Amino acid sequence: MYSLNVVLVLRGLSSGSGGVDPNPGLAVPKHGRKETEEEFDQRYINYFNRKDIDGWEVRKAMNDMHGMDLVPEPKVVVAALQACRRVNDHALCVRYLEAIKMKSVGNPQIYAYIIQEIRPTLDELGISTPEELGYGEPELALANPYDMH
Amino acid sequence: MSLQVLHLPKGMKAMLLVRKKMMGSIGTVGCNEYHGRSKIGKREVVGFGLNGSFTYFDAPDIPMPAIRFREPNTEITALREKEKGNWKELTVDEKKKLYRYSFCRTYAEMEAPTGEWKSITAGVLAIVASAFWLYVLLKKYVYGPMPESTSLEWRKKQRDWMILWKVNPIEGISSKYDYENNKWKD
């Protein structure tokens, strides 16, 4: 399954503008195409809203966005959570919310704002935030492999 | 012509077998070796991860690794089936189990302070302290006596001679002495 996606990734933006971009994983659009923030958001929302999205693709888009210097807009987060629902993976949602919290580490209000904005989606889909699961604080500890003798 | 079995001494035979296996694995990489799939056991491949290889690691900047953390067993498979239904029916415990099935550590656990700085500081200070002790021992047992010219009396005498000879009269020691009144300037 993933080899198919490799082909799509390589084809990328050479098909020109227009149509659903099968590869939103490029941080800087090629060929000098500049896009506004709304276009960027819409590109990712369209990607997440695909009905046939795969778990692999959801994770790739999330990892790519995580690498960029931004915190995703609430509507992009909503689309991502709905994509997680489509692939039936609740742990992915919790991990994504934790990742957003880590991205907003300089300004904790951002995380609170995003949770507040996506609260309707969380309630509708039945997603627990990390704090509700008790993962706001460390629960288990892992021994440092360098300290094991 | 009948097939002749080649009898080799045991060591040579072993070498040939190893060589054949190596050649075999170089010439034909099974699809199970790509990206390390043969090393992950029954764990499910779910994503691209950092670079496409099937490794699990916890890193704050790669939230979704390429494989799940644990291998599926009956309990988890049943939970995954339940996950396909309404998530509101999952209890908190079940959600936590699902999380720990896919991931090893939570972000809070990844970024929790380890207290390593205390052992590092202790080690550094211990080494610095031992350096000071080394100096004390050297001074006591190794170094000979200091020369006479470093004693206080000698240095006082030396200072008086320097004033007499007007050493460094512009900005040095003699400039600080008032020759008319024969005393040190204030």
Describe this structure in words.
By secondary structure, chain A is mostly helical. Chain A is globular, with a radius of gyration of 17 Å. Chain A has a domain at 33-125: Alpha Horseshoe (Serine Threonine Protein Phosphatase 5, Tetratricopeptide repeat), CATH 1.25.40. Chain A has 6 helices and no strands. Residues 1-18 of chain A have low confidence and may be disordered. Chain B is mainly alpha-helical. Chain B folds into 3 domains: 33-111, Cytochrome C Oxidase, Chain D (Orthogonal Bundle); 114-144; 146-185, no CATH class. Chain B has 6 helices and 2 strands. In chain B, strands 1-2 form a two-stranded antiparallel sheet. In chain B, 12% of the residues are buried. The mean pLDDT of chain B is 86. Chains A and B meet through helix 3 and helix 5 of A and helix 3 and helix 4 of B.
Key traits:
heterodimer; A: 149 residues; mainly alpha; Serine Threonine Protein Phosphatase 5, Tetratricopeptide repeat; 6 helices; 54% helix; B: 186 residues; 3 domains; two-stranded antiparallel sheet; 2 strands; elongated; metal-binding (chain A); signal (chain A); heme (chain A)
Précis, in short:
The complex is a heterodimer of chains A (149) and B (186). Chain A has helices spanning 2-11, 37-48, 55-67, 74-86, 90-103, 108-125.
